[in-house]
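New to this. Explain these tokens.
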Amino acid sequence: MPRKKRAPGRVRRVLGLLITLAIAAFLALLGYGWIRQHPEDTPWAPLDLSQPIGMFTGRKLVALGDDFPRCRKLLDRAGVEYTALAPLREGAQCGYDDAIRFDAGDPRITPFKPARLGTACPVAAALALWQWEVVQPAAERHFRMRVTEIDHLGSYNCRRLYGRSSGDFSQHATANAVDIAGFRLADGKRITLLGDWKKDGAEAAFLRDVRDGACRLFATVLSPDYNAAHRDHLHLDQADRGATGWRACR
């Protein structure tokens, strides 16, 4: 009897499956290589302050609020010089256990004015990355010089939101926030939120760039675009909003 010919349809299905598997394996290898080269864009890779800002960097920084030793180790690994502040308690709602202060003279950190700014460690880690990856590149891009000082309006303040007599406490009540008022360039020029946000030109563009860059690092960023209460500063905080990872950027 003549041998039966294999059904052409079956051969095509087998070939199609093999091709699909080969493509999937190739894409998996590409994805693995990409992940190894871009750990900042994967949710499971440990945070590294030497890496560029990635899709999950902001969430990883917020998570440091539950692990002060890990936050300090990250700063140590990045070569940041700092002093851990003694725990502070002021009533049931105010105080901190995880605050640090950047050491004066650290060449990696642009000085804050007034000096001796203390913040919760996750805020400090984000501020370091913000300086390195956002503020200084924006200054070079717009003015071809570096920022030499960053003006602030403080961090810790035992108060409720907007200074009200009732309602939720501010992130400032745990040093988990900082208000940035302006920047001084290497030539002495001062750029402020109050004076330059609404202007045209390089100063306003720079301020918007540093605001937008902060949105990738902080859980909350509020600027003069938000309301009149923020007309003279950027409010930056690391509020933990749970699994949703909801972030505020305005």
Q: What stands out?
A: DSSP finds six helices and twelve strands in the chain. The radius of gyration is 24 Å.
